[in-house]
Amino acid sequence: MRDLLCLVNSSEVRIEGLETLDYLDNLSHKEEQGDAITFESEVDRVYVSSSNVVAVLDHEKKRSFVIRKEGLPDVVVWNPWENKSKTMVDFGDAEYKQMLCVDAAVVERAIILKPGEEWTGKLELSAVSSTNCSDHLDHPVSI
């Protein structure tokens, strides 16, 4: 979801559609119980078997990003925060405050194809000029 990078102030962001799901925490290397997603330290999570629609609400800029996915069962949420961003050569020391990665993925269960088989994953990213996206989460993926 490179389009979300450098577009949001991570401290003013809320993510809808993942808050009740269990997730794999790549920092603690264990499965955690779902809770509100906040950005006050490094976040590196995989939400497994998530819904096909997730919204990133940017309250500061009064806009939202709606992610619709198909064939991609998981969602990765990542922000390196201060300490890790200082060790990354392609990151300015304070850029972690202006970015958030939310991306559809296949992480928990690999997709294994036999010769001649096909697999398709689709992702649609929409920008909505509002921070009230709840009605967008109920609509099915239209591809």
TrEMBL record:
Gene Ontology MF terms: carbohydrate binding; glucose-6-phosphate 1-epimerase activity
A single GO cellular-component term from the record reads: cytoplasm
Which Gene3D superfamilies does the record match to this protein?
A: 2.70.98.10
Q: Which superkingdom does the taxonomy of this entry point to? A: Eukaryota
Q: Could you tell me which SUPFAM superfamilies the record lists for this protein?
A: Galactose mutarotase-like
Where does this protein have coiled-coil stretches?
none
Q: Name one GO biological process term.
A: carbohydrate metabolic process
Q: Name one Pfam family in it.
A: Aldose_epim
Q: What is this protein called in UniProt?
A: Glucose-6-phosphate 1-epimerase isoform X2
Q: What is the lineage of its organism?
A: Eukaryota, Viridiplantae, Streptophyta, Embryophyta, Tracheophyta
